[in-house]
Write a structure and sequence with these properties.
alpha/beta; five-stranded mixed β-sheet; 2-enoyl-CoA Hydratase, Chain A, domain 1; eight-stranded mixed β-sheet; disordered N terminus
């Protein structure tokens, strides 16, 4: 960006246009995303010709920062065609390490510089569901980190994930050895300073020493020599003795700095507690918020307290409709959320909630008025629209939270059967993946004393599986809020949650009924796979099918057959045959035999019956039935993106809709894994 050196030094980054043949320079020297947004970064990039640059030098000395801003910068730089050289001048920690690992750049690290990677972390407030949602959000961010590090290093996700659990610090040489950096350069004498406190980083002592080695007292300029005296010697005017340079201040140790920080923090907390005590210990939530935020000074806490004490005063709106903000924390938002959840039946009503009696329209007004936004002169459509879009209002997010809970409730309550017997898996991207079937691992070979272990030989015919995205849009309109239409908030997303689960069920049972080809070129149910039989639901037919599964084999490398010993756990039938299957399997004796004959049912309770209406077919008289191995076996896999096995919900202010557009999606892939854990009977 175009700025003076002084201005640039106050910012956590700078972009300096290239001069002549010199490369463009970008410096990230503090916390990412605190002062400059990704929008500002790209604006400065355009102004300085970043997208036309032929060569770029990126210098980093940062403890990390905001993940979203960090990835925005990462994606901008990753899309450039210029040659990029990155230099870590002190440390590239957390999100800064991701930017340092650009796939299209060369990373140079001095021996005594540091790169640190760890799991993303953050904080959230709310109930248990909110915490779980935030944990899912952190997991999704971790997946993005994994992809960036894997792309740079060539390591597996499991290897990177193991390094993320602790705070892993790598010096220049270690970073090169593990694939994060490309070149080791000469060590630095001192690293540049950071304007941000780094007490919360578990730094190696060598890095602390490097960062503390730069506060050298500047040497004063030399005193100029006096000219030689002319003529008779005159007494030289008495000059003050030149000031001697003060002794260089000794750098405080890490322990001294920590003790000083604890002392200052103790004083800060005492002053804040005294302020709230003088106010009658009101607003304890706000006090805890101020105490937990290390950047909140007592003066700022006092301002927040005074604003909170005046939150019941509704400011008037002048003719020009200017908005007045008074900042009331989360109390109002939490009460509005609790009121809506109670009215929709998603939570129990709170007896002391003053917002329980309000309609959606009144709650929209409360979310603005109690945040200090004057709306007296607005008609209902304008007021509700502002509740969705105003930066001081969290009404839109509250509605999204309610819709999300309804969506998940619909997902959980959906009557689907596929989860009982299929295998749950996960995929990290949308590329085609190959799975190894249960018969690909023969018996372990004997290793004689002193002999070498041998590598197992796996075929390249693993079954293919790939993710796809399934989703729909619906809208929460301003008219629905004005009409107090709770169905738009809960009924629609709940039904979409049920539809999302039904979509997965459709994909699973389509595999059984469509009988697709496997990697060997033969269909899933094929005579060569020894998993097809005939016969209606009788003891003899079920026993024959069970025998087929129990005697499935695989070949060892020595050419010998090994029995896999797969036990059937489920009988999958059309609903029209469910009662018949239960009767045959659960009866103590064989049908037709005298009850006193002593002939026991040999297959009694050998499997659980699952009646599935999709198997009844269009004409309702399907006869085919199936045996399936226990859940988790290699039968049919249902894989989800990064293991997230519930639908997502996202919201965006609509341009063509007077409200917000809400998107529901789920990323899943369904595919058969192995033929040996399934048996099909034609039923006739």
């Amino acid at each position: 960006m175009a700025s003076s050196p002084a201005a640039a030094s106050d910012s956590w980054y700078r972009i300096r246009a290239a001069a002549g043949a010199q490369p463009m320079e970008i410096a990230i020297y503090d916390v990412i995303g605190w002062d400059v947004t990704a929008k500002t970064f790209i604006q400065d990039a355009k102004e300085n010709g970043l997208f036309d640059a032929k060569a770029i030098t990126l210098r980093i000395h940062s403890p990390g920062g905001d993940v979203m801003d960090g990835f925005a910068i990462y994606n901008i730089l990753a899309g450039l065609t210029a040659r990029i050289d990155i230099y870590v001048d002190g440390m590239a920690a957390s999100m800064a390490s991701v930017i340092a690992c650009l796939p299209n750049a060369t990373l140079h690290m001095p021996e005594n510089s540091w790169l640190m990677i760890h799991k993303p972390w953050g904080g959230s407030m709310g109930d248990a569901d909110d915490m779980r949602d935030y944990a899912d959000f952190l997991d999704r961010n971790e997946s993005m980190l994994l992809r960036a590090y894997v792309q740079k290093t060539g390591k597996t996700e499991d290897e990177i994930r193991a390094m993320l659990k602790p705070d892993t610090w790598l010096n220049g040489r270690e970073a090169v050895e593990r694939g994060f950096a490309d070149h080791v350069i000469a060590p630095l004498k001192a690293a540049a300073a950071l304007n941000h406190r780094t007490e919360d980083l578990d730094m190696p002592n060598a890095l602390k020493a490097l960062m503390g080695a730069q506060a050298n007292t500047p040497t004063p300029p030399p005193v100029p020599a006096q000219p030689a005296a002319q003529g008779p010697a005159q007494p030289a005017p008495q000059q003050p003795a030149p000031a001697q340079p003060a002794a260089q201040a000794q750098q405080p140790t890490a322990a001294e700095l920590q003790a000083q920080f604890r002392h200052q923090e103790k004083l800060r907390q005492h002053e804040i507690r005294d302020l709230f005590a003088l106010a009658g210990n009101r607003h304890p939530e706000l006090m805890n918020e101020c105490l937990s935020n290390l950047d909140t000074t007592p003066a700022q806490a006092r301002t927040k307290l005074l604003e909170a004490m005046g939150r019941d005063i509704t400011p008037s709106t002048p003719d020009n409709q200017a908005h007045i903000h008074s900042g009331n924390g989360n109390l109002v938002g939490d009460s509005v959320r609790a009121s809506i959840l109670a009215r929709t039946g998603l939570a129990n009503a709170e007896a002391d909630n003053d917002y329980n009696h309000m309609t959606l329209r009144e709650l929209a007004r409360a979310s603005l008025v109690d945040r200090g936004v004057g709306v007296a002169s607005y008609h209902p459509m304008q007021m509700v629209g502002m509740a969705f879009t105003h930066t001081s209002s969290d009404f839109g997010q509250i509605l999204l939270d309610v819709a999300h809970k309804a969506l998940l409730q619909g997902w959980e309550e959906a009557e689907e059967t596929f989860q009982k017997w299929t295998k749950r898996g996960q995929l990290s991207d949308f590329k085609v993946q190959h799975r190894v079937g249960l018969g690909e691992f023969p018996s372990l070979r004997q290793v004689r004393e002193g002999a070498e272990y041998k590598h197992i030989t796996l075929g390249d015919n693993g079954e293919r599986i790939q993710l796809a995205t399934y989703g729909e849009l619906f809208s929460i309109t301003r008219q629905a809020i004005i009409n107090d239409d709770l169905g738009a908030l809960t009924d629609i997303p709940m039904k979409m949650g049920m539809a999302a689960k039904a979509t997965i069920g459709d994909l699973v049972y389509a595999v059984l009924m469509d009988n697709p080809k496997l990697a060997d070129g033969k269909t899933l149910f094929h005579a060569d796979h020894k998993n097809t039989t005939t016969g209606a639901l009788t003891v003899e037919a079920l026993d024959a099918a069970r025998t087929l599964m129990r005697t499935q084999k695989t070949m060892t490398e020595g050419g010998k057959a090994r029995t896999l010993n797969i036990r059937p756990a489920y009988v999958l039938t059309p609903v029209s045959l469910e009662a018949k299957a239960n009767q045959v399997i659960r009866s103590a004796s064989v049908a037709g035999a005298d009850i006193n004959s002593g002939i026991d049912n040999p297959i009694r309770n050998f499997a659980e019956v699952i009646g599935e209406p999709r198997l009844d077919g269009d004409n309702g008289n399907s006869k085919a039935w199936y045996l399936a191995a226990k859940a988790g076996s290699d039968t049919i896999e249902v894989a989800y993106l990064n293991g997230v096995d519930t639908p997502y919900i996202e919201q965006q202010n609509g341009f063509t809709v007077d409200g917000v557009a809400t998107k529901v999606r789920i990323d899943a892939g369904v595919a058969p894994l192995d033929s040996r854990g399934l048996v099909r009977s034609t039923g006739v």
